[in-house]
Amino acid sequence: MKKLRTAIMSLIIFSAFATGGASAQGDGWQTIEVPGVPVKFSLPEPVKMNEEASQGLVVYAARKEKMSFKVSVMKRNLEEDKAKGLTDEAVLKIFATRLLTASKQMFAQMGFPTEFKPTVDKLEGHGPLEYVGQVGKATVTNRFYINDQGIYWLEATTQDLTNQDYKRFLDSFKI
Fold first, then answer.
1. What are the mean pLDDT values of the chain's consecutive 10-residue runs (175 residues total)?
2. Do the Cβ atoms of 56 and 63 come closer than 8 Å?
3. Fewer Cβ atoms within 10 Å of its own Cβ: the N or the C terminal residue of the chain?
4. pLDDT value for 11
5. For the chain, how many structural domains are there in total?
6. Quick check: 50 and 16 in contact, CB under 8 A?
7. What is the pTM of this model?
8. What does the alpha-carbon distance between residue 119 and residue 139 come to, in Å, rounded to a whole number?
9. Could you tell me if 153 and 173 are in contact, meaning their C-beta atoms sit under 8 angstroms apart?
10. For 75-104, b where at least 16 C-beta lie within 10 A, e where not — what string?
11. Domain with 63 in it: what CATH number?
12. Is the peptide bond before 113 cis (omega within 30 degrees of 0)?
């Protein structure tokens, strides 16, 4: 549990940072494939990457206009989860709850109290669980995915939910 708390705090800290295994698409976006993990996603350029190897954590982040995008990849200890009798859904809900609690505290300290409401709260396959909150004028969408190799957190912040780049980012994540 202490390792999970440390990893979650690292996610919050590294979210301000985050260039990794990426290929340019020629339209100002990069497709990123994380080595050793069967996931793929796209972010607008430039993409920043930060890695905390001791936590098994990699964070990718990008900004475009008034939007920000982030993908956090955390290594999963599947054997430990199985030994504890935890299902994928239980592991993901614990992770999401802790991360959203830390995010709420961070936003409150900045003068933006918020509540994240579940919009998808039942795990289908690898995910997502989705929670959405208002932070000032912006909407923050958090999606959480899981597989045997890792736990994945996507965060998209926008003032315009109809923006095509916002939709493109969320739709690009494949597991």
1. 49 40 69 89 96 89 97 95 96 95 95 93 82 96 95 97 97 93
2. no
3. N
4. 44
5. 1
6. no
7. 0.83
8. 13
9. no
10. bbebeebeeeeeebeebbbebbebbbeebb
11. 3.40.1000
12. no
